[in-house]
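Hi L.,

You mentioned the student needs an example of a multi-chain input paired with its predicted structure. This one should do, with 576 residues in total across all chains.
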Amino acid sequence: MPASDPTVPAVSVDGLAMRYGDKVAVDALSLSVERHTITAVLGPNGAGKTTTLETCEGYRRPQAGTVRVLGLDPIRDRAALLPRIGVMLQDGGAWSGVRAREMLDHVARLHAHPLDTDLLSDRLGLAECGRTPYRRLSGGQQQRLGLAMALVGRPEIVFVDEPTAGMDPHARRTTWELLEELRGDGVTVVLTTHYMDEAERLADQIHIIDHGRLIASGTPLELTRGGAHATIRLVVTRPFPPGSPELLAKALGEHTEVTQLDALSLMVTGPADASTLATVSRWCEENDVLPESLTLGQRNLEDVFLQLTGRGLVP
Amino acid sequence: MSPATGGPSGTFAPRPGAAPLHRQVLAQAAMESRLMLRNGEQLLLAVVIPVIVLIGGVAGAERVGMDLAHPPVDVFAPGVLALAVMSTAFTSLAIATGFERRYGVIKRLGSSPLPRSGLLAGKIGGLLLIEALQVLVIALVALVLGWDPAPGVLGALLGVVLGTAAFASLGLFISGVLRAEATLAAANLVYLLLLAGGAVVLPVSAYGSFGEVVRWLPSGALGGAMREALIDGTTAWADLAVLLAWAVLGTALTARTFKWE
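Structure written out for the whole complex:
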């Protein structure tokens, strides 16, 4: 196997397009992933995250555009690439009657220098369910086994699809720490998620996709930095009168944006100063709107996503 | 960005590589056969039913004074061996593969170093392991019942190999085009139909004029090949050619239709 060239990006996707029948899953998507980073592909369900990942893993042939992983074509150079990547599927991937440990040992045997499966089971909290058949594992245990199977071959890159979906908070935290340790040990981690906190906490680089298109890329800081911008969340006791966002935006002037979050709350993005706050409370008074809370804060990823798409990430 | 811990000496420091192909195939074959043996229904199909058919057939033939040219056990044992091959290579393989597709096992293995050819080789290896076990058990029971086989080793071996190829390719075809539950139903139904009317356990001559049709079925051809080898000690080239033709047909159908996911 040739020594891998460290200057080649871990993943580069250029102009990827995929459609299933009439439905466009991915549209002119371009992104790249640097080595030894954790990169999150963030977006709502159905945004095209899994499809993008599956073209990188060699499961799907790009209908347009190119995909390279470690400089290799996942379809043409499949045999050379597969041993070098680890894949965690969103669900399934094991015989229903196979015992957890037996499955992990089996995948280990397919690799030349697998990790010690005792150690890996311990690290992922699988030691106590090692003899349990796959179908009787809890959702979280199945997820952790999936992650263990992705790691056991000591890959250069791991692709993890929604790694903490269905995990309890403790298992989530442990998984995050493990993914950070992987990066520290020189593994590139590419994960999809629809959890903001996961992306914000873990990722060096975030690509936000929606309707199959890349709508923003950057570090968590770059994405949430609004300069002097801040957000004001206004929650009221009775539903807003129709046209409220437009009226409030008019009152605030041209440097602010108003997004309706739901019937009882609005988000204002604009200069973080007293006059903005004062304008909002005066508008409430004039329009007979009773505020329940009025909070001022820095933007988080959720706000960024809202602003970019006009809707929330988690339904 | 990267914490100072770990590095090339860390627990997870990359060291990728595929195991040698033969070891991957062996691991896959061992896994497939182990899972098959663990499954009660599969074991029933693989060993219990053939043994019951053998004992029941011999006892029944003696009781009703069935007119066979040879002792009943000599006629039934080769047919029951053929039945065992059919149950494993066709029914068990189809059901197992159907559920592997459903549960994402084939997808999971598709991103492992095991190539598709290796997966197929592993499956065949698993089948041959199970069949060896079946032959052992059935032959022992038959010997206890007084079986006196003719030494048609070549014919019997070719029958098992070509019969496995024919039935396995047809089993994979079914599992590739139907959903898992439909595969389960279809594979069992076909097995029962062929057991009853496919000239697998009983010779073609027992079916009267209908025998001219069933001899062209893979079941009739396999049963015929096994009987000719183990009763007369000769190699049934015509039956083996029929099995080969079914294997070619099944492989072509599977290659055209099988989806790995």
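You could point out the following to them. The mean pLDDT of chain A is 88. Residues 55 and 61 of chain A are 6 Å apart (CA to CA).

Best wishes,
N.
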